[in-house]
Amino acid sequence: QATGGPPPVDPITQQAGSTVGGVGFEVSLPSCDVQCRGWVEFVEFYKDQILQMAPLLAPAQADPTCEAASTCERLLRELSQATRAIFHRNPAMRDKVHTTPIVTEDDQKFLGSPDKTLWQGVVAALHLTPSQQQQARELQSYYLRRMTAIMTQRQQLCNLLMSTCSAAPGPGVEISGYWSNNKFPAEKHSVALQIITDLQSNIADETLAQIEAGHGLICKVMTPLQACSAFVGLYPWFPDKLAMMACIVEQQGAAASTEQSGAPGNPAAAEMAPV
Q: Of 19, 78, 80, 226, whose CA is between 20 and 30 Å from 72?
């Protein structure tokens, strides 16, 4: 029998942070003071933020204490708040923004989804430290464990719902009118409704996990200027933070393999060493 879980958490109004195991920092999602936008308004807002941010990056990177750096951080914070708000309240928007360039009707039309090399190039240009790369790896590991648990629960709930709804009808409840042939046992209704509620909570957990992982990468692993650089470098595409996280982990693994292959005492390295 399905058990009732906690109600879906709204990551926009959630104040308490959730600890990311092993990473050593809190993933907290503060309240959002940016109004939730529809697609057209969001596109205009996003473009305006990026166009303001782009010319400030060079002076900000040259002097992280200057006013340009402070402005970049403010623009990034506002952008993060707006995207978290709109993605949480409209999950379909999250899927659209990751496959649709940030353009308006007056802009050039882009077709297709961004190639993997786009994420790889932007991530490489960030010059993340080994510590940052390790944090990204641990964050990804935490995210994958969390998603595995969510998907396992979802499969169990779906199986339970199917078995509940397809069970052989009992005596049922005779109802006059259009429902006179309804033989679905009354007690099965409450069970099925509880399972559906649990599924809704499970899907909300998936959305929250994705938002928290992305927030952790941009706001905790990266520095504000690195995050701004990623947003500007990927424009007109919206940063797929999970794809960026995967690229960071992939590049860290490739670098580690290269170091090991050239380490002293490695047979392959010895064969290539000059005599």
A: 19
For residues 44 and 105, give the distance between their C-alpha atoms in angstroms, rounded to a whole number. 11
Determine the residue type at 163: S
> Taking the CB of residue 62, how many other CB atoms lie within 10 A of it?
10
**CA–CA gap between residue 17 and residue 229 (Å, rounded):** 26
Asked if residue 39 lies in contact with residue 24, where contact means CB atoms within 8 angstroms, the answer is no
Cβ-Cβ contacts under 8 Å for 175 (sequence gap 6 or more): 182
123 close to 247: Cβ distance less than 8 angstroms: yes
Token duo for residue 94 = 């999250």
C-beta of residue 23 within 8 angstroms of C-beta of residue 35: no
Helical pair 224-234 and 39-53, crossing angle rounded to 10 deg: 120
Q: Can you give the C-alpha Rg of the chain in angstroms? A: 24
Model confidence, pTM: 0.71
**CB 223, CB 85: distance < 8 Å:** no
Helix (H, G, I), strand (E, B) or coil at 19: strand
Element (DSSP H or E) covering residue 189:
helix 186-216
Q: Which residues contact 115 (CB under 8 A, 6 or more apart)?
A: none
The one-digit pLDDT tens for each residue of the chain (275 residues) are: 444 444 333 333 333 333 333 344 344 444 555 555 677 788 888 889 999 999 999 999 999 999 999 999 999 988 888 877 777 677 677 767 766 667 655 554 554 567 788 888 999 999 999 999 999 999 999 999 999 999 999 999 999 998 887 765 555 555 555 554 555 666 778 888 999 999 999 988 988 888 889 889 998 899 999 999 999 998 888 888 888 999 999 988 887 777 666 655 554 444 433 33
Cα distance between residue 156 and residue 3, in whole Å:
12
> What tokens appear for 202 in the block?
């499970």
